UniProtKB/TrEMBL annotation:
Coiled-coil portions: none
Protein name, entry field: HNH endonuclease
InterPro entries associated with the record: HNH_nuc
Domain HNH nuclease per the UniProt entry, residue ranges: 281-333
Presence of keyword Zinc-finger: no
Keywords: Endonuclease, Hydrolase, Nuclease
CDD domains, alphabetized: HNHc
Superkingdom of the organism of origin: Bacteria
Length: 432
């Protein structure tokens, strides 16, 4: 039977968490039922906040989600109450996308038809496919729903649309002498700016803030490479970009002016290489397949991740899509430290084995999820491997390893946060 780790019937902690989730859902559904159609949401949220001991903003977020469940999402409502596997952060992220549907809905589309499709889609993406499958992170659900709406042609990417809200503004921070800056705009434009900043940081060895200043005020020049997915080599216009997600039609049109180089996905996925460093095409396929860091529960974008050999290259692991996965620096270090062990099949489904015997299945979530790699990639270059090859000895430092840390270590790091030097992106991958 397929289930998420939080639905494991043998885990007492999972049972307690699900019971708490179900009680919360039922409590806020009752609070929503008390609110009449003409009652002020702000006023009711304030009263709920006082009664429940939470902020008015949090109460309003709960009530908005209850509105969508009760009004538009009957199947999803029944699903989340019976499963009780999702919690506030999941609902908050979903609400942020759901509230954009009506103002962005094309004139010829029916809100009833669209919401019925969304209802079925939400049930699908929150239903486990394997035993011990890791629960999707809130940000992952947000991305999936957002990409789905783009495929339904519900998008705010066109700045000519009066319903689209774009903004750029500075704001103060808690640190004296420092301010922040936010820019909300079309995802492809934001991605290109971010990539340009990263390239300038790596090239000039400067901070991100200095790089952004040079680009905006000194016309600093840099070149970037975007990794995308196109359906055919005859018209290689990307419909999906790593780091930006699904592209609306106007965004696709903007990219037609850029130089493009096409690689066959199926051929690249089948490649077996002896050398350690994967090709740019192999990295692209793996990132498009994975979507995010493959550690259970991590939603770091694959674009910001390193390439990891599941079977260590030194232990005979192939450099092939079937033996490569995207891992953020923290979780790459965790695997390298041997604090956790993982295996992967040719479809990119990763199984993680924790020291206490627990298991978690991590599914690829990118646009190429389900693509098959070379079956030989799950074995070694010499056909077999030993425990010594896999390097499964316990981590050093009493199980903490080189990169693990205790509570005291964490607190010491936090005290040094303001004194740290700017970090530079694009460091070489760990050789495992």
């Amino acid at each position: 039977m397929a289930y998420y780790t939080i639905e494991d019937p043998t885990c007492e902690a999972s049972k307690m968490q699900r019971a708490a989730n179900r009680l919360q859902l039922q409590a806020y559904l009752k609070q929503y039922a008390k609110m009449g159609n003409t009652e002020c949401l702000n006023k009711h949220a304030g009263r709920v906040g006082v009664e429940m001991g939470i902020s008015q903003h949090r109460a309003e977020q709960w009530l908005l989600f209850m509105h969508y469940l009760h009004t538009w999402l009957p199947d999803f409502k029944e699903h989340v109450i019976s499963k009780a596997h999702l919690e506030y952060q999941h609902f908050q992220k979903l609400t942020a996308v759901l509230r954009t549907i009506e103002p962005l809905l094309p004139e010829h589309e029916s809100i009833y038809t669209v919401m019925a499709k969304v209802d079925a889609f939400l049930v699908k993406i929150t239903t486990a496919r394997f035993e011990h499958q890791a629960l999707p992170r809130p940000e992952h659900l947000r991305r999936q729903l957002s990409d789905y709406l783009i495929r339904l042609n519900i998008t705010g990417s066109d700045e000519r649309d009066e319903t689209c809200t774009t903004s750029a503004e500075a704001f103060p921070t808690h640190t004296p002498g420092l301010s922040g800056f936010t820019w909300i705009g079309p995802s492809d434009q934001i991605l290109r700016l971010d990539q340009s900043i990263c390239n300038l940081v790596n090239r000039e060895r400067i901070s991100r803030s200095e790089a952004m200043h040079r680009i905006c005020n000194e016309n600093a020049q840099t070149s970037i490479t975007l990794v995308g997915f196109a359906k055919t080599s005859h018209d290689p216009t990307p419909t999906h970009i790593v780091g930006a997600g699904e592209l609306a039609k106007d965004q696709q049109a903007n990219l037609t002016k850029l130089h493009k180089h096409y690689h066959s996905i199926t051929k690249t996925a089948q490649q077996l290489r002896d050398s350690y460093v994967p090709t740019a095409a192999q990295c692209a396929v793996v990132r498009l397949r994975d979507g995010t860091c493959r550690y259970p529960g991590c939603d770091r974008d694959a674009l910001k991740c390193q390439m990891d050999h599941v079977i260590n290259h030194g232990a005979g692991g192939w450099t092939s899509a079937g033996n490569l996965q995207s891992l953020c620096t923290e979780h790459h270090n965790t695997k390298t430290d041997r604090r956790i062990r993982t295996t992967m099949n040719e479809y990119g489904v990763s199984t993680w084995y924790f020291p206490d015997g627990r298991i978690a299945i991590s599914m690829p979530t990118g646009i190429l999820a389900g693509i098959r790699g070379n079956p030989k990639a799950v074995s070694t270059r010499w056909g077999k491997h030993t425990q010594a090859d896999d390097n499964i000895k316990p981590p050093i430092n009493n199980g903490i390893g080189r990169w693990g840390y205790t509570v005291n270590h964490k607190l010491k790091r936090l005290t040094k946060h303001l004194k740290r030097k700017p970090s530079f992106e694009g460091a070489e991958d760990i050789p495992f």
